[in-house]
Amino acid sequence: MNTFTTFCTVAALITVSVISRASAAPADFDGVWIPDVKDQHRQETANVPPWKPEIVPQVAHMAAEEKAGRPFLVLSHCLPHGMPSWMLISHNAFEWLTTPGRVTLLGEVDGNRMRRIYTDGRSHPDDPDLTLHGDSIGHWDGDVLVVDTTAIMPQAYIAISEAIGIPNDGDMHIVERFHLAQPNVLHDDLEITAPKVLTASWKTTRIFRRYPDRHYEITEGECEQEDLVPGKDQYGNDIFFSHPQNPDGSVSTK
Amino acid sequence: MMTLRAIALIATGLVFGLGGIAAAHHSGAAYDREHLRTTEGTVKTVNWTNPHITFVIECDAKGGAPVQTMVFEVSSPGVLTRSGWTKRSLQPGDHAVFHYAPLRDGNPGGFLLKVDLPNGQVLSFTLQPSDQ
Predict the structure, then answer these.
(1) Which of A138, A204, B1, B55 qualifies as a FRET site for A50, CA 20 to 30 Å off?
(2) Total Cβ atoms within 10 A of residue A93
(3) Is the CB of residue A39 less than 8 Å from the CB of residue A206?
């Protein structure tokens, strides 16, 4: 009995120790982070992805269309940015939340801007459902959170701007190294491997800034709210009504 | 009779060819930032929505020109909130001076950059808080 009790105690301590090591967060990344949009624009030309030759004309066409004032819509239909575009081109803030065994990134615009990064030591699932943000697992390498993301939908863009993005077409793998370059400057070093559209892995960095004195919050929002109008139901309750759609896609309130 | 919102969305939709994708978050390439303009008018409609906010403005009739309805697009609720705006900063009936980058295709509207209110308050925004 004593031997069994001792065994259980040791096993429990080992388990707790493993989980603690896996989920410990040696650096404080919590808070609201705002992308450095000026640096995003610099990166558009300073470090372009190694597109496959057959992709290059598509990118050139998008660039020409944007220059002509007819930008391609990388972001449409209220879909989330997906990965890696959220980290690459978003103009909106995200909130970083560290909890035991998990990091959560909450984005703006609607509730679908969310990444769950598991730091509890688990592996990627064997047969995952593909999603726009993929399956992310992380571990701490000193003060660096290393995040490995797979299971991303083939439709998720590799975007270098809001007007230039190419679907990854499948089998994309992303490794990120999040670290603080300064106490309130977060760098996300991304290595994006997308064998269907890139000739080699693409390494790039995006910068996010934290402003603790300004007490910023991310704001609630629903992208679909664009298609709704406030009104009253038959009981006088405040509700949203859908706008009827005209054949040309515009909305009428009559 | 076509409502102002319908006018707004059709005008925005014209920019991108399809009204159905007018609500998309998009590049600012449709706007001419090299030739900024100013107009005075009254707010008719506020659409405080993601991914972009839009204001429908009825411009003042000046010099015999007909009253014109314009649609101004601006950044997102998150960006404007962090720049000091609230949903109530501009309300229907408010008269103001609007500074904007016009639509390249000549349609009445543009990307709103700054608003001068009669009480002297200036409403603007930045994506980059370091600039504030």
Answers:
(1) A138
(2) 27
(3) yes
Amino acid at A190: L
Candidate from A73, A74, A211 with C-beta closest to B16 = A73
**pTM to 2 decimal places:** 0.79
B50 → closest Cβ in A72, A216, A226:
A226
Using the 8-state DSSP alphabet, how is residue B94 labeled?
Answer: -
B28-67 per-position pLDDT tens digit: 788 999 999 999 999 998 888 888 888 999 999 887 777 8
CB contact set of B49 (below 8 Å; sequence gap of 6+): A221, A223, A225, A226, B23, B77
**Cβ B111 vs Cβ B91: under 8 Å:** no
Q: Give dist(CA A241, CA A225) in Å, integer.
A: 10
Nearest chain A Cα distance for residue B63, angstroms: 31
Q: Does domain B4-131 have CATH number 3.20.20.60?
A: no
**And the tokens for A213?**
């004195």
What tens digit of pLDDT does each residue of A192-201 get?
Answer: 999 999 999 9
Structural domains of chain A, ranges and CATH numbers in brackets? 23-213 (2.40.128.20), 222-254 (no CATH)
Q: Do A113 and A187 meet the contact criterion of CB atoms below 8 Å apart?
A: no
Give the pLDDT confidence of A146-155 residue by residue, as tens digits: 999 999 999 9
- pLDDT value for B24: 61
